[in-house]
Amino acid sequence: MNTRISHLAKLLQAGIVWLLLPCCSSELTLGDPVQPPPKGDPGIFKVYRRDGDSLMAGGWSSGMDLSGVSFDQRQTATLVSRRHVVMANHFQRAVGSKLVFHDRRGKFLERTLVKTRTVHGDVAVGLLSEPAPANYRVYPLPVAREDPSFLIGRPVIVSEQNRRLFFHKVRTVNRFMIAFEYDVADTHGWGKKLIKGDSGNPSFLIDGQELVLVETHTSGGPGAGPFYGSAIVQEKLRKVMAEMDPRYTFRTVDVR
Which CATH superfamily includes the segment(s) 45-138? Predict the structure, then answer.
């Protein structure tokens, strides 16, 4: 009997300790973006909450700053300025929707989508009710080039509706679109067949310490969508963003 009581006491103690755990990943070691080992766990979150702080997965993914991506609904939205998000035009959030972000330690942030506009093709932009703070990442776009074919073969980080990261390769790119292929050698992490509901999730290139936004999903399989290094996409995006709030615009980086 005493043994059973002792065991119960230990379980209760463990439960109490669990309840007292911090609500976000305050002790997480944060680094620069790195590609995972083959078959590395693709999860970003250990425990995800739409209504509060979340626990991050840690490991290699702690180097991937996804704090600027709102994953709380399947219609994902990605920060390109402190007040602007991009989405798939065919899979947008409605005006008035709440957008939830979590910083690199899992701290909760909520904003309201107050305006949306079509930009070009499958790109839409939305305006937040107020700017996101500095601890939530705003993603740069690639500098527009006449010939972006140097990106072919580059590893690309592909996200999806279940808040996971996969690693594909750039198969083809032109002035308007970019398409991916699977890395058949599984050099880094895993590949994933994108399906209905993954539309609008962002893809990134790693450039030094930056995640550079190159695409939001339009089609499935290995993935394809509008190329954010397109001069036409950038010109139209800059114009629409200025009409919504001229104090903010996107920035670009010269991807090598």
Answer: Trypsin-like serine proteases (2.40.10.10)
